Amino acid sequence: MENFEFVSPTHFVFGRRAEEQVGAKLSEAGARRVLVHFGGESARRSGLIDRVCASLDAAGVEHIELGGVRPNPEITLVREGVRLCKEGGVDWILAVGGGSVIDSAKAIANGACVDCDVWELFETKALDHDVLPIAVVLTIPAAGSEASKNTVVSNDELGLKTGYANNAHRPKFAFMNPELTFTLPPFQTAAGLTDMYCHLLERFFDDVGAVPVTDNLNLSLMNTIRAEAPRVLADPENYDARANIMWTGMLCHQGLAGVGRHEDWATHGLEHELSALDPAITHGAGLAVMFPAWMEYVYSENPTRFAFYGQAVFGLTPTGDANADALSAIDETRSFFASLGMPTTLAELGVEEDDIPKMLPTLAQNKGVPFGSFKKLTLEDAAEIYRLAL
Hints:
By secondary structure, this protein is of the alpha/beta class. It has helices spanning 22-28, 42-45, 48-58, 75-88, 99-111, 119-124, 186-204, 212-234, 239-254, 266-277, 283-298, 303-314, 322-339, 356-367, 379-389, and strands at 11-14, 33-38, 62-66, 92-97, 134-138, 150-155, 160-165, 173-176.
């Protein structure tokens, strides 16, 4: 087990009507003027924004609103949020939505406390500044951003999508009501399940070897996702299934499932270039395509690890041939994603071989070269993985 630091400051309020406690909890924490940040009009049409704002009003907490966060959030709206915070005396940010909204809120929380343009933080990864406190009303379990140290934002002008990690912007509160996820479209539910599963794969496959306490947590979460996925897709209003998925999604990316490991994150880097190329590509769908391709390219570095994964998660029987068992585990992973309705090729996402050279320069800029830990990858390796995914 490697040395590690682990920070988890989030206060979780989980269960039915959790969002109704927003005002009281934030008031107790000292909030006086809140930026309510959300995505499309569905949050307003559903009545959720009204309920959240009513809770703030009842607690005497002033608020202003900023909607319009798109999937793969973009820096332009972040800058608008920063402006509103600085001009309006905002002291807390409340994200109402999924990973994209929360990531945008984290970026705003950082930008509101610096004199430079907020994008510079994504370039320099600076950590020596204050951050406005953040609370979350989660509506889409997937990214785990409601408790993580990570945010990912796109800059369309530069054609970049990049991440920024800062423990200071882990949310202080996460209000998690599984009922808010009942109306999610099946595709969005499936993409979220894929995203959280891939967060575990990034942690399970690295160069450290066995870390039993972390590995067993990781594998348990994988098996929970596989067990609950068909239940929730068949019965979207199954509260217990939705609750298990919501809590699992948080655990998948909070950091606990990776302690003592280096983690890999090459595949997320490869996928980020897809959704930078075309922001309409859903992150989970891109991961469903890229992860099996990455697996096929790197498994020979440690086929026994892949074989163990196949036995522990898919119940595969060992054949005595580690390479064959590893390939079977990869096939099962691809089949699992396909069973959720996820794409299996880049062609299904509208990405062609001619697009590969367009993604490599920004991949190098974002990840450096070499990148990954399970196998150190060059840009030539990356190009081959993209071709495997075609």
